[in-house]
Fold:
Amino acid sequence: MQRQSKKRFKVEDLAFGQLNEHLAYEFQEYVLKDKGLAVDTARHYLAILKKICRLAFKEGHSEKRYFVNFKLPKENRKAPRALNREDFEKIRDLEIPASRVTHNIARDLFLFACYTGVPYADAVSITDDNIYTDDNGALWLKYLRKKNEHLGRVKLLPEAIALIEKYRSNERKELFPMIHHPNLRRHMKGLRDLAGIKTADLVYHMGRHTFGSLITLEAGVPIETISKMLGHTNLTTTQLYAKVTPKKLFDDMDIFIKATSDMTLVL
Structure:
């Protein structure tokens, strides 16, 4: 937005009084045509523009709420990638030499994402304050997502608890050590090669997708519950994560056939 204002208005920033309803359309054209960026990128920047204008009006910095009727370009949503069971087990059972400390941490953090659905930025920020015990003695992880400040809450599987205990340390408040993101990406590629996985790229966020499909949906967890555990603001997002796997499809059909076995078809 700043570059466009410099190009057209010869200034670094625009006052709210200088805005008009055509600016959003002009900015969209600038991002798509002049800069050659993707539609999703334009949508991201325009969403920020609308949010700033909404907050400015709400807090009295602007006399008018701009771009209320401006529709964001349609999002190009692709189904997220998740690991199949074979590849998940390859990473889970991979033996990494103890000397490769950060590779082990990266693998364990990725497994934690697979078992809880927690994004990396949240996983390395959680502390004992985020762990709760319910009336039955089960441990729960509750946290506010950094992305949208929406509450994520998930009952901890034994594997997730074991990972927490493995890295718990009195030397830091956080439950897990941090790996800087560029190093994390490099280690994830290394894990892919060490495990012999065929996927084009292995990224940390695939652990969250794997939780949403392989670990939960395939085990019969309702999609509404998965949405709450992942901290999604709407069910549509969860439906992208929670891909129906062939095993889930076959299991559901077996349940359907069993439930309808005593029914008589009347024409």
Q: What stands out?
A: The two ends are 64 Å apart (CA to CA). The first strand starts at residue 131 and ends at 133.
